Amino acid sequence: MSTDIKLVLLDIEGTTTSISFVAEELFPYIRQHLRFYLESTWSTSQTQEDLAHLSGLSIEDDAKGDKGFPLFNFNKGDGLTQERLDDAVKNVLSQMDVDRKSTALKALQGHMWKDGYASGQIKAHIYEDVLPSFERWKSKAVPIYIYSSGSIGAQKLLFAHTLYGDLSPYLVGHYDTTSGLKTESQSYENILKDINEKGREIRAEEVLFVTDNILEAEAATKVGMRCVLSVRPGTKELPASHPFLAVSTFQSLPI
Prior knowledge:
Layout: E1 7-10, H1 19-41, H2 45-63, H3 82-97, H4 103-119, H5 130-139, E2 144-147, H6 152-160, E3 171-175, H7 185-197, E4 207-211, H8 214-222, E5 226-230, E6 245-247
Parallel strand pairs: 1-2, 1-4, 2-3, 4-5, 5-6
């Protein structure tokens, strides 16, 4: 199997990085700093863009009758008021409360984490078996890509600020929910198409996708990718019977 694999595609949470890091460090950082961040950056073009995307999603939710997320109505150029700030905070926190994977939310979180990494308040956890595997794959000229529900910007920040230093030189490319939901087969078709359009000649069966989510593995398998399930502390318990190889360390991967 290993000789047939020409590309590795990796999930992050529960695969390269502990679930507890995301749940106990990254998300609490957002909750703790959200109001101050929005208040202090409200007029910047980046935050105005983030707010506009959040508002667009909120208006779509409202039109569909989804009352689970407080309405946030904003247009670029709207100044900071206490009411707008409160509405933005409530909307963001309500999405986080249900672990919503919206692109608008992930973009804002990514920009906030950038500040946290830059200030040294955040250092990303990486499992100790990941870097040796990165080095092994690089020595074999096997490119490594990331596919995570976190924004591409957030992914790059995480790998650039790990406990083992900057691992970004090992990574060739990144994909997030702009390529589609991770539980939908079309997303993996989209990723493979993009990789090949950028100059590589890779068939689906030559891709090894590693994730802790069996639904994602099933979706990728439908397009022909080879999939391995990552079993790390805190990952969801797998069914008693399933067709995938399950590993607790990258050292057990078939490449």
